[in-house]
Write a structure and sequence with these properties.
By secondary structure, the chain is mainly alpha-helical. Helices cover 68% and strands 2% of the residues. The protein has helices at 3-30, 36-63, 91-109, 119-142, 144-151, 161-168; strands spanning 85-86, 89-90.
Length: 169
């Protein structure tokens, strides 16, 4: 493991995680005063529910081997996710970094439904959305070179810079 990469990823993870409370204050300032607390809590609640959903199921569906679009459940409930290296950083840190983007994306959704949805329904919605929609999209993006090659035989593989440059000419 590379200590510099680990330090940078820890800082990056913290900065992305800080975007969620900042978004809560931003959204809280945009609504009527009677809805400010509810609006802010919609962003804050994603830290808990979406973070847990990501750790329990979402990460496994997005980043494990499976089909080209969706992973399997081999890392469900953080099975096999520990401090061993994944690239040059700890596996758990990679999971947390990816989870922060799931959290902030779910918090961004709250801006679209401010004053339009009950809080309990919102909590259920973002939890299911994180597992079903975000994990699927993230898994498809992570496996993109694989399914792009399988659907477009003439497309570049993006795994070889030489092929990519040749394809661009």
């Amino acid at each position: 493991m590379n200590q510099a990469d680990t330090a940078w990823m820890l800082i990056s993870t913290a900065l992305v995680l800080l975007m969620t409370p900042a978004l809560a204050f931003f959204y809280g300032g945009l609504v009527r005063s009677k809805n400010a607390l509810n609006t802010m809590m919609m962003s804050f609640i994603s830290l808990g529910f979406v973070g847990a959903a990501w750790a329990l199921l979402g990460y496994s569906l997005a980043f494990t081997e499976g089909s080209n679009w969706l992973g399997d459940l081999s890392n469900a409930f953080l099975n096999g996710v520990g401090l061993e290296a994944k690239g040059t950083i700890p596996h758990a840190l990679f999971m947390c970094f990816q989870g922060t983007f799931c959290i902030i994306t779910a918090a961004l959704i709250s801006g679209a439904i401010v004053e339009r949805m009950r809080f309990s329904a919102y909590v259920v919605f973002i939890t299911l959305w994180a597992v079903v929609v975000y994990s699927t999209g993230c898994g498809a993006a992570a496996g993109w070179p694989t399914w792009a090659r399988s659907t477009s035989p003439g497309a570049p593989s993006f795994t070889s810079t030489r092929r990519w440059r040749r394809w661009l000419r």
